[in-house]
């Protein structure tokens, strides 16, 4: 019997998860974490088993200033909180009545429409992929003149041809022996002239 009890619990949990659909709750910008605490706390206690996961998708962004890399998290969808709910009229009123919430998009009219599974996979995939893919903010633009400060091309001056923030690389065109030579360099090795 000890083996069958976990299976029964899993099937009950799966059945409960099938009833949960993803919805978007529109909050005031900057209050997403407070809204998430409300959804995970008081609302979940009031409606046990009818509130699932709550997500605020973020990505890591690396900025380079004064020779130092700083990493911070940026919200992919500021002002929006994604939550799994088994929705009814009372729950809708509780969420719409919460401080710092303006309701359910679009424009808080009628009954909220759940997001499709494909949309949620795309949204959550962006958030999950942020561990693998970091976006680097580079302080210079295409066409600007830069100087290499380290590596084999140290003290060479060239023009930025392209920037790849996902890889943190910069393609710089140098003039070597009268010919143009494009070279891909890490963003940390280059400074504006």
Describe what this molecule looks like in 3D.
With 193 residues, the protein is α+β, with helices and mostly antiparallel strands. It has two domains: 4-133, NusG, N-terminal domain (Alpha-Beta Plaits), CATH 3.30.70; 138-192, SH3 type barrels (Roll). The chain is built from four helices and twelve strands, in the order H-E-H-E-E-E-E-H-E-H-E-E-E-E-E-E. The chain starts with a helix and ends with a strand. The protein has helices at residues 4-19, 32-46, 89-96, 117-128, and strands at residues 21-27, 51-55, 58-65, 68-75, 80-85, 101-103, 135-137, 145-148, 157-164, 169-176, 179-186, 190-192.
State the assembly state of the protein chains: single chain
Secondary structure category: alpha+beta
CATH topology term of the largest domain: Alpha-Beta Plaits
The largest sheet is: 5 strands, antiparallel
Helical segment count: 4
Q: Which secondary structure elements does this structure contain, and how are they paired or packed?
A:
Blueprint: H1 4-19, E1 21-27, H2 32-46, E2 51-55, E3 58-65, E4 68-75, E5 80-85, H3 89-96, E6 101-103, H4 117-128, E7 135-137, E8 145-148, E9 157-164, E10 169-176, E11 179-186, E12 190-192
């Amino acid at each position: 019997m000890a083996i069958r009890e976990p299976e029964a619990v899993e099937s009950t949990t799966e059945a409960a998860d099938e009833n949960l659909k993803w919805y978007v709750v529109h909050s005031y910008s900057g209050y997403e974490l407070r809204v998430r605490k409300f959804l995970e706390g008081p609302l979940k206690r009031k409606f046990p088993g009818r509130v699932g996961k709550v997500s605020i998708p973020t990505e890591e962004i690396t900025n380079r200033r004064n020779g130092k890399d700083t990493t911070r998290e940026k919200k992919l969808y500021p002002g929006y909180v994604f939550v799994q709910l088994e929705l009814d009229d009372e729950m809708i009123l509780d969420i719409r009545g919460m401080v710092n919430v303006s309701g359910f998009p679009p424009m808080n009219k009628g009954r909220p429409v759940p997001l499709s599974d494909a949309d949620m996979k795309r949204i959550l995939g962006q958030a999950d992929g942020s561990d693998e893919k970091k976006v680097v903010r580079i302080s210079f633009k295409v066409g600007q003149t830069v100087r290499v400060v380290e590596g084999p091309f140290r003290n060479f001056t060239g023009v930025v041809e392209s920037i790849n923030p996902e890889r943190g690389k910069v393609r710089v065109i140098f003039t070597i022996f009268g010919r143009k030579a494009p070279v891909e360099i890490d963003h940390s090795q280059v400074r504006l002239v």
